[in-house]
Design a protein that fits this description.
With about 300 residues, the chain is α/β, with parallel strands linked by helices. The chain is built from twelve helices and eight strands. The chain starts with 6 loop residues before the first strand and ends with a helix. This is 4-hydroxy-tetrahydrodipicolinate synthase.
C-alpha cells in the first residue's frame, strides 16, 4: 500500500462559538479556505483540533461537517490515537469509516512504554483496520521518542503503515528514517518550520498548523520544495518563519486562531485548559498576519 498523503496536509483546528459549542460555519469556512488555498489533504481531530477536550459525539460531528463541506475534494485523515491500546482497537473496529481515507495515530503518551510496547501498540492498531495508518512521533508531548528502529520495523511488517508524521525535531533521526524507509513508506514533517529542510532531505510532505491560516503560502512552499524549486520554496518558508514561531509561543492552537480570526474565519475561543494568548502576542500576530496577506 503506497502512501497517498503527500504534500501540504493541514491539522485542522476546531472553531468554537462563545458558548464553546462547535462553530459549524467557522469550520465550513476553514475547510473551504483549505480547498481554495491549495492544501492537499485534511487532518481532522489531531492535537491541533483540541481532540482531548471533545467528546466522541463531538468528534464525529466535526468529522461529518468537514466531510460534507469537503464533498470528496481532498483526502481526509482522522485522528485515532491515545494510550489505551484496547480502546483504540475497539474504536477502529466499530467506527464508521465511510468519510475517511486514513488515520493518524499518536505514539502512546504518559504511560512511557518501551520501544517494544510502542511496537506492540501499533501492531494491534494495524491489525484492527485496513485503513492506511500515519504514525505520529511527538516526544515533546508524549515524553517518549519512537526510535528509528521501531518505526522502520512497523513500516516493513505492516502494509497499511504508510507514513510517519515525525516531530522529534532531530534532523539526524529524520534523515536516518528517510534513508531506511521501505518503498511505499514516507516521512512527513510534524514541525512547520522544519518542513522545507526535511523535504530537501527526502520527506514527502507535512501535516501543518500554520497551513490553517495561510494555506496559499504554505502549500506553495511545499509544492515548490517537492519540485526542487528551492528558490520559491525558500522565499515562502521565510515568509511564514517568524509567524509560525509566534503561533507556538503561548500554546497551540491559541496562536493560529488569532490569525484565523484576522482572516474572518472564526473566533479565538478555546476550551480549558487552553487559554487565549496574551494581548502583546495577539497584537504581534495580527500585525504579521496583515503583512503576510498584503505581500
Amino acid at each position: 500500500m503506497n502512501n497517498m498523503f503527500k504534500g501540504a496536509g493541514v491539522a485542522l483546528i476546531t472553531p468554537f462559538n462563545a458558548d464553546l459549542t462547535v462553530d459549524e460555519q467557522g469550520l465550513r469556512k476553514l475547510v473551504r479556505l483549505q480547498i481554495e488555498g491549495g492544501t492537499d489533504f485534511l487532518v481532522v481531530q489531531g492535537t491541533t483540533g483540541e481532540n482531548p477536550v471533545l467528546s466522541p459525539e463531538e468528534k464525529a460531528h466535526v468529522l461529518d461537517i468537514v466531510a460534507d463541506e469537503n464533498n470528496g475534494e481532498l483526502p481526509i485523515v482522522f485522528g485515532v490515537g491515545g494510550n489505551n491500546t484496547m480502546a483504540i482497537v475497539n474504536q477502529l473496529k466499530n467506527m464508521n469509516h465511510d468519510a475517511i481515507d486514513g488515520i493518524l495515530s499518536v505514539s502512546p503518551y504518559y504511560n512511557k512504554p518501551t520501544q517494544e510496547g510502542i511496537y506492540q501498540h501499533f501492531k494491534a492498531i494495524a491489525e484492527a483496520t485496513e485503513l492506511p495508518i500515519i504514525l505520529y512521533n511527538v516526544p515533546g508531548r508524549t515524553s517518549s521518542n519512537m526510535s528509528v528502529e521501531t518505526t522502520l520495523r512497523l513500516a516493513r511488517e505492516f502494509d497499511n503503515v504508510v507514513a510517519i508524521k515525525e516531530a522529534c525535531g532531530d534532523l539526524d533521526q529524520i534523515m536516518q528514517l528517510i534513508q531506511g524507509a521501505p518503498e511505499g513508506f514516507d516521512v512527513i514533517s510534524g514541525d512547520d518550520n522544519l518542513t522545507f529542510p526535511m523535504i530537501v532531505s527526502g520527506a514527502q510532505g507535512v501535516i501543518s498548523v500554520s497551513c490553517n491560516a495561510f494555506p496559499e503560502v504554505f502549500s506553495t512552499m511545499v509544492k515548490a520544495a517537492l519540485s526542487d524549486d528551492n528558490e520559491t520554496a525558500r522565499e515562502n518558508h521565510y515568509k511564514l518563519f517568524n509567524i509560525t514561531n509566534m503561533m507556538f509561543a503561548e500554546g497551540n492552537p491559541a496562536g493560529v486562531k488569532v490569525c484565523l480570526k484576522e482572516r474572518g474565519i472564526c473566533e479565538t475561543h478555546l476550551r480549558l485548559p487552553l487559554v487565549n494568548v496574551s494581548a502583546a502576542l495577539e497584537a504581534k500576530l495580527i500585525e504579521e498576519t496583515q503583512a503576510i496577506l498584503k505581500s
